[in-house]
Design a protein that fits this description.
The protein is α+β, with helices and mostly antiparallel strands. 55% of the residues lie in helices and 8% in strands. The protein has helices spanning 8-33, 84-97, 102-108, 118-132, 134-151, 154-166, 183-195, 197-207, 215-240, 246-253, 280-289, 294-307, 312-322, 329-341, 351-362, 373-381, 403-410; strands spanning 37-45, 51-59, 70-78, 109-113. The mean pLDDT is 76.
């Protein structure tokens, strides 16, 4: 970093400059493309105990040649108030700061998603079921004891690993189940117990620790839990996919707007050629709701009926429908990444700095594809010092000399 750009403050300023330049370019392209957008938001408290609103945009960036929507992290906003009005004010200020004024939002914003995502609703349903089935509660208690036994004691983990090696079993990690986790994660924990079962039994026999359970009872409970959680796991994993759209989600949760079904050929009648006005009402309603050019969309739909492929006039409608969010799971991934950045030893980072680091991590290119020259130019044009600026005060370096170790250092 040359002579002067070595301080923590300089690094923060550089990171913020690069992140701001990246976000401005992408959001400017989104606005220029006049694509429909959806806003996905979620509120949480970070490790540093700050209430923050994470903001994602789901849209098509036409200038990049992308035809399908993509989730773009926009910002992490520190909240002054966690009430609905406070979150609304913070969201609007955030969008306005990126050039998304009220007129733009009125014309291109399709929806704002701020709810428990389908995965969380699935968790609630599982939790209600668990409370009604006593046998599963007993199995949960058993697995919780296994988790504590092997998570908190390295000695027990080493002994279990030795048992697995003797039996030639690949040891899987045992985690908690039936707590605040996605169903697919719970399934992996149960599956780990299922796969490690022989090693666990051998360890019990050798170490004589933990509760004593009948083997048949263990197998019965494990079988019941695996069968039940496997079905729920498949649904949970489908809902977490980044490319989930309105049609795919409809097949899973049956919650589509009826108008959109008109675009699915599976719902067309056999005598469609005899119905002159087929689908026009639904297409008109969709055009008014989104809003889109009604005549252009109807003309495109008529071509779609004849050719069975989406014409250019209908692509705008299809992309607009695809930007309707089904799950807020991307926000959860963003908060997980936030907690990786805000570690207990870095809990004093400002929210703006965390937001910039998040943007670079989630949206920015990998280092091998990163071209720093354009950001160096904008950095210098903004009046900042270069790394080799001789007119600036040179960084004072700490004196690391040590007479006692100098002779040893000469050998290295």
């Amino acid at each position: 970093m040359g002579r002067i750009l070595h301080s923590t403050n300089a690094c923060i300023i550089i990171v913020n400059h690069i992140g701001n330049e990246m976000s401005k370019k992408i959001i400017a392209e989104v606005i220029k493309s006049k694509s429909k957008i959806s806003i996905i938001i979620n509120e949480s408290t970070t490790i540093s105990q700050k209430s923050a609103l994470i903001v994602y945009i789901w849209c098509c960036v036409k200038g990049s040649g992308m035809n399908s929507p993509i989730n773009l992290f926009l910002d992490l906003v520190e909240l002054e108030s966690v009430k609905a009005t406070g979150q609304l004010v913070a969201l609007l200020e955030c969008l306005h700061s990126y050039g998304m004024k009220d007129e733009y939002l009125k014309n291109y914003l399709v929806s704002v998603a701020f709810w428990h995502c389908a995965n969380h609703r699935l968790e609630l349903s599982v939790g209600d079921t668990i409370r009604e089935i006593l046998s599963i509660n007993r199995f949960k208690s058993f697995l919780d004891k296994l988790y504590v036994m092997y998570h908190a004691t390295p000695k027990n983990r080493r002994e279990l690993r030795s048992c697995a090696e003797l039996l030639n079993i690949q040891l899987l990690k045992i985690g908690r189940i039936l707590n605040a986790r996605w169903v697919s994660s719970r399934f992996r924990s149960v599956f780990a117990v299922w796969e490690n079962y022989e090693a666990l039994v051998k360890h019990f026999e050798e170490a004589v620790v933990g509760p004593t359970w009948d083997k048949n009872e263990k197998s019965t409970y494990a079988g019941l839990m695996c069968d039940a959680l496997q079905k729920l796991s498949e649904l949970s994993l489908d809902l977490q996919k980044r490319n989930i759209n309105l049609y795919k989600a409809n097949k899973k949760i049956k919650a589509l707007v009826q108008w959109a079904r008109i675009l699915d050929q599976n719902h067309w009648p056999d005598n469609i050629n005899n119905q002159v006005t087929f689908g026009e009402t639904e297409i008109r309603n969709l055009s008014l709701r989104l809003p889109l050019n009604e005549r252009e969309i109807i003309r495109g739909f008529l071509e779609y009926l004849a050719e069975k492929t989406y014409p250019e006039n209908l692509v705008h409608l299809v992309q607009a429908l695809d930007t309707i969010p089904i799950s807020s799971s991307e926000c959860e991934r963003g908060f997980s990444q936030t907690n990786l950045i805000i570690t207990p030893t870095r809990a004093s980072l400002m929210t703006k700095t965390v937001s910039t680091l998040l943007f670079i991590e989630l949206v920015g290119p990998p280092l091998t594809s990163f071209d720093p020259s354009k950001y160096i130019d904008s950095w210098l044009l903004s009046g900042r010092h270069s790394a080799v600026d001789t007119k600036s005060k040179e960084r004072r370096r700490e004196d690391m000399s040590n007479e006692n170790l100098q002779k040893l250092w000469d050998l290295l």
